[in-house]
Write a structure and sequence with these properties.
The chain is α+β, with helices and mostly antiparallel strands and about 140 residues long. It contains four helices and seven strands; from the N terminus they run E-H-H-E-E-E-H-E-H-E-E. The longest helix has 15 residues.
Length: about 140
């Protein structure tokens, strides 16, 4: 069983390490700001008393929600952990009365987001190059 809870500030280093393992990102790209954790914007997925994934969910100025990050331990991919985190994000975003959940999709994760009901919305420039933007209605 997967449970999802708000991350604790003391988990920052462990979550950044999980992000690095899950995304193969360079060390300078795996910063998870302590401010996001302290503000209650980061949620961890726990299975068998072990943190197996996390999401970072940020409010937008237009009232919608950004799924700023979603990472699952590589050895636990394809076990519905990511899907559980997306569903939890949708539930929380709906409570905030947002209309859309937005994500900048890593090309390797596009199929996952499509399976979760996201649709392509455009492109944006990131420091790693051009990435596709996706969104999912919350209603």
């Amino acid at each position: 069983m997967i449970t999802i809870r708000i991350a604790e500030p003391g988990e920052q280093a462990a979550l950044q390490a999980l992000q690095r393992r899950a995304s193969h990102s360079p060390p300078d790209a795996d910063e998870l700001p302590l401010e996001q954790i302290a503000a209650g914007y980061v949620y961890v997925a726990v299975q068998d008393s072990v943190v197996v994934g996390f999401s970072s969910v940020l409010p937008r100025e237009d009232g919608d929600i950004d799924l700023d990050g979603l990472f699952v331990e590589p050895g636990r991919w394809r076990r519905r952990i990511g899907t559980s985190l997306v569903r939890d994000t949708i539930r929380r975003a709906t409570l905030r009365e947002g209309r859309w959940l937005h994500v900048i999709a890593n090309p390797a994760a596009e199929a996952f987001y499509l399976a979760c009901g996201f649709a392509f919305d455009g492109e944006t420039q990131t420091r790693f190059g051009v990435a596709r933007t996706m969104r999912k209605p919350l209603t």
